[in-house]
């Protein structure tokens, strides 16, 4: 016990020393904040947090409570390949800097904050999961970017929830063009048959409940293609957890 207390004291001392040399700043506006990997009050308030009630399948917010398991008109008209989806915030100009900081600048503190927020928004999905799987990058894109933001988020979510983290289950077997600027149908065609279960993972998904993690849910084409591959391998349930949800896909470029 003395060793544990001593270790905690050392970590607090080291954290204090780091904060003294480089005081923590807001991840968006860079104003001083109390804790690292956080936002100032103004930037936090600027995010459009998604809370219940929401569409059970898409995670889109409802204006009023329509009852447990209620589905939106969009989900009824075109049921998604996954079972349930949840997101922490709506994608807009306030959320974009956080997403870009992790995705394009490898700012891991942004990922830590995003994972914490996703953990709160997706508590029920995390509790229901047998394993947590990130949306994979094609090997050439991973080589070029050197970082998979979805894997980073999934790894931290799995660690916090005490769930198995399985980045080896899904493979992106076809290099696809960027989804930015594509409409819903073009996105679906772009990722069609782009994902498959890894050969060594055969039999590890059958009968299991999988939580699929990505940074942003736009039209659902990418996570839908992943969900189809997982269900084809026998997954009984595939849920989706993202940091942000695009409420109007035609309006924003990620």
Give a short overview:
This protein is α/β, with parallel strands linked by helices and 254 residues long. The chain has helices at 2-21, 41-46, 73-77, 96-105, 108-121, 123-128, 139-145, 149-161, 184-191, 221-232, and strands at residues 84-90, 131-134, 170-172, 195-197, 209-217, 237-245. The chain contains ten helices and six strands; from the N terminus they run H-H-H-E-H-H-H-E-H-H-E-H-E-E-H-E.
Could you explain the architecture of this structure?
With 254 residues, the chain is α/β, with parallel strands linked by helices. The chain folds into two domains: 1-46, no CATH class; 51-245, Rossmann fold. 40% of the residues lie in helices and 14% in strands. The chain contains ten helices and six strands; from the N terminus they run H-H-H-E-H-H-H-E-H-H-E-H-E-E-H-E. The chain has helices at residues 2-21, 41-46, 73-77, 96-105, 108-121, 123-128, 139-145, 149-161, 184-191, 221-232; strands at 84-90, 131-134, 170-172, 195-197, 209-217, 237-245. A four-stranded parallel β-sheet has the order 1-6-5-2. Strands 3-4 form a two-stranded antiparallel sheet. Helix 10 links the parallel strand 5 and strand 6. The longest helix has 20 residues, at 2-21. It is globular, with a radius of gyration of 19 Å. The relative contact order is 0.15. Residues 13-20 have low confidence and may be disordered.
Summarize the topology.
Layout: H1 2-21, H2 41-46, H3 73-77, E1 84-90, H4 96-105, H5 108-121, H6 123-128, E2 131-134, H7 139-145, H8 149-161, E3 170-172, H9 184-191, E4 195-197, E5 209-217, H10 221-232, E6 237-245
Parallel strand pairs: 1-6, 2-5, 5-6
Antiparallel strand pairs: 3-4
């Amino acid at each position: 016990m003395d060793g544990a207390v001593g270790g905690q004291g050392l970590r607090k001392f080291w954290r204090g020393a780091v904060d003294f040399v480089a005081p923590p700043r807001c991840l968006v506006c860079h104003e001083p904040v109390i804790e690292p990997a956080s936002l100032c009050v103004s930037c936090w308030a600027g995010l459009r947090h998604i809370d219940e009630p929401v569409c059970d399948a898409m995670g889109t917010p409802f204006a009023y409570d329509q009852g447990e398991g209620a589905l939106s008109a969009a989900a009824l008209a075109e049921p998604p390949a996954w079972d349930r989806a949840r997101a922490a915030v709506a994608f807009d100009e306030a959320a974009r800097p956080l997403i870009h900081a992790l995705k394009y600048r490898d700012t891991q503190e942004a990922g830590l904050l995003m994972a914490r927020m996703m953990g709160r928004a997706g508590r029920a999905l995390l509790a229901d999961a047998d394993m947590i799987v990130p949306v994979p990058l094609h090997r050439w894109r991973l080589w070029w970017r050197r970082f998979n933001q979805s894997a980073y988020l999934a790894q931290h979510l799995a660690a916090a929830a005490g769930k198995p983290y399985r980045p080896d289950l899904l493979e992106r077997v076809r290099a696809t063009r960027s989804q930015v600027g594509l409409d819903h149908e073009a996105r679906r065609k772009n990722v069609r048959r782009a994902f498959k279960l890894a050969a060594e993972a055969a039999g590890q998904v059958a009968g299991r409940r999988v939580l699929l993690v990505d940074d942003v849910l736009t039209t659902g084409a990418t996570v839908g293609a992943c969900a189809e591959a997982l269900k084809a391998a026998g997954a009984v349930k595939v849920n989706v957890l993202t940091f942000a949800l695009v409420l109007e896909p035609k309006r924003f470029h990620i």
